[in-house]
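Key result, reporting period 2: structure in, sequence out.
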């Protein structure tokens, strides 16, 4: 008798595993839900109408308004204190970016400390030094009731011409 190499059929059943693919979900927080208020705020200018104000040719990078469109309303974020002589922005034509200068003023209005601030996006050391000097040479109004030292920052924005 000759032995057969054929295998006996198996009595076990094979199972196929089916994978279910998850349906994509929509993040409701990422969707625009429409206007959330009726724009009843006071706005950024000298009137009580909502929205920013300024000259059509003015800069949108300002946060204050003095009626001239220059963006220098005098508010420096130190309560009632204002610039007596504000920093003069260095004039450049071949650099684009932002220089932030952190500074400390005493109660007499003297800028007593300056340093390069976080958010500076210019790597031109000469320009940064000119910005530091511009703030050093500025002066703030005195306030005998102010703390001995107050901290603030000034941002210079440079655009290619």
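The corresponding designed sequence is given below.
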């Amino acid at each position: 008798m000759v032995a057969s190499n054929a295998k006996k059929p198996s009595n076990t059943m094979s199972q196929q595993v089916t994978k279910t693919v998850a349906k994509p979900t929509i993040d409701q927080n990422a969707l625009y839900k429409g206007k959330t208020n009726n724009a009843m705020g006071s706005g950024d200018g000298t009137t009580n109408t909502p929205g920013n104000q300024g000259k059509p040719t003015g800069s949108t990078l300002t946060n204050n308004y003095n009626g001239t469109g220059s963006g220098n309303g005098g508010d420096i974020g130190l309560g009632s204190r204002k610039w007596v002589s504000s920093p003069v922005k260095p004039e450049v034509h071949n650099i684009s970016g932002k220089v932030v200068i952190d500074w400390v003023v005493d109660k007499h209005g003297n800028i007593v400390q300056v340093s390069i601030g976080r958010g500076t996006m210019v790597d031109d050391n000469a320009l940064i030094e000119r910005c530091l000097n511009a703030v050093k040479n500025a002066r703030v109004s005195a306030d005998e009731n102010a703390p001995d030292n107050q901290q603030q920052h000034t941002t210079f924005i440079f655009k290619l011409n």
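The chain has one helix and five strands. The helical segments are 125-136. This case is discussed further under Risks and Mitigation.
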